[in-house]
Amino acid sequence: MKDDIRRATGVIIRRGREYLVGTILYSTDLRWSIYPGDAWITRNREKAQRVADRVGGELMLYNPIVRQMREIEKVR
Q1: Stated pTM of the model
Q2: Confidence of residue 1 (pLDDT cuts 50, 70, 90)
Q3: Distance (Å, rounded) from C-alpha 15 to C-alpha 58?
Q4: Contact by Cβ (8 Å): 41, 8
Q5: Per residue, what are the HEC states of 7-52?
Q6: pLDDT tens figures, 8-63
Q7: Distance of CA 3 to the CA centre of its chain
């Protein structure tokens, strides 16, 4: 059970009080949500950092199972 919870943890991007969901279909516009559960989630920290740098966001660790979130340091 504990391993399943750890595997669900991923990286999301927060900017202000909103979380990056993705791009709008057939557009380059970004979609944002006030709910972290809607956010695009990845386990690839470097990829998430590149996206966060482009959109002016910060990386957050998020686990949707237990709904826990915390800020993580930038990868350099």
Answers
A1: 0.86
A2: low
A3: 6
A4: no
A5: HHCEEEEEECCEEEEEECCCCCCEEEECCHHHCCCECCHHHHHHHH
A6: 899 999 999 999 999 988 988 999 999 999 999 999 999 999 999 999 999 999 99
A7: 20
Distance between CA atoms of residues 64 and 29, nearest Å: 25
What confidence tier does 74 reach under pLDDT thresholds 50, 70, 90? low
Q: So where are the chain's domains?
A: 2-71
The amino acid at residue 29 is D
Residue 14 · residue 58 · CB < 8 Å: yes
Structure tokens, 20: 């990056």
